[in-house]
Amino acid sequence: MTKLTGKIALITGGTSGIGLATAQLFSAEGATVVITGRRQDVLDAAVAAVPGSVGHQIDSTNVGDLRTLFEKIGSAFGRIDVLFVNAGGGSFAALGTISEANFDDTFNRNVRGALFTVQLALPLLGEGASIIMNGSTAAAKATAGFSVYSASKAAVHALTRNWMIDLKGRGIRVNTLVPGPTATPGLKGLAGTDPTAQQGLLDQMALGVPLQRVGFPDEVARAALFLASDDSSFVTGSELYVDGGEGHA
What we know:
By secondary structure, the protein is α/β, with parallel strands linked by helices. The protein has a single domain (8-182, 216-248), classed as 3-Layer(aba) Sandwich (Rossmann fold). Helices cover 43% and strands 16% of the residues. The protein has a 7-stranded parallel β-sheet with strand order 3-2-1-4-5-6-7, sandwiched between helices. Strand 4, helix 4 (100-121) and strand 5 (125-134) form a beta-alpha-beta unit.
């Protein structure tokens, strides 16, 4: 028997990178996977790549979209066993150049969206359910021009610690998955569209990793599987680093 047989798993922002790799692994491990994304064409491609999955086009920063999503999941499945709050993102902006739009976009995607995703999912989460928040090593380390993103991810880590107490007695586990630099379309996109510039960014980030390379989405997905499955039945309020040692160097 596979690790997630019979489980209903929701992965927000599951159309590429870590989200898509996790959706594929969860499906292979027996889960019925629900994927969300903002662009219908990309969402359709992701659903086609994940056997038996269901896709919903939503903007996770829009509470109305989230309410509709959970109504549909409730009607179709009646519950959520694994919630991977993966949707998010950010961009470089050094102090002195940070705009209101940059701040609002980053905090809306990484904090507002995460908070209301979990809060609105609560009625569908029962005993033994697992909530996985996607954090970042950026939450605890300095990176030039990345202060807004770093602060937003630090907020995600704080939410996990506090929600562990709020969920006391419900049998719901909540943990933060903490990827280091990972070769995803989102990370590469910080360097623009030129492949040489993208590889240069990855090479630069690898210099700060004790394993001397960036990670790959499937490596983070395997850690997410641990947090989703009964293998982590006594793990809550934790931060699981998948970073090649970057966060502790």
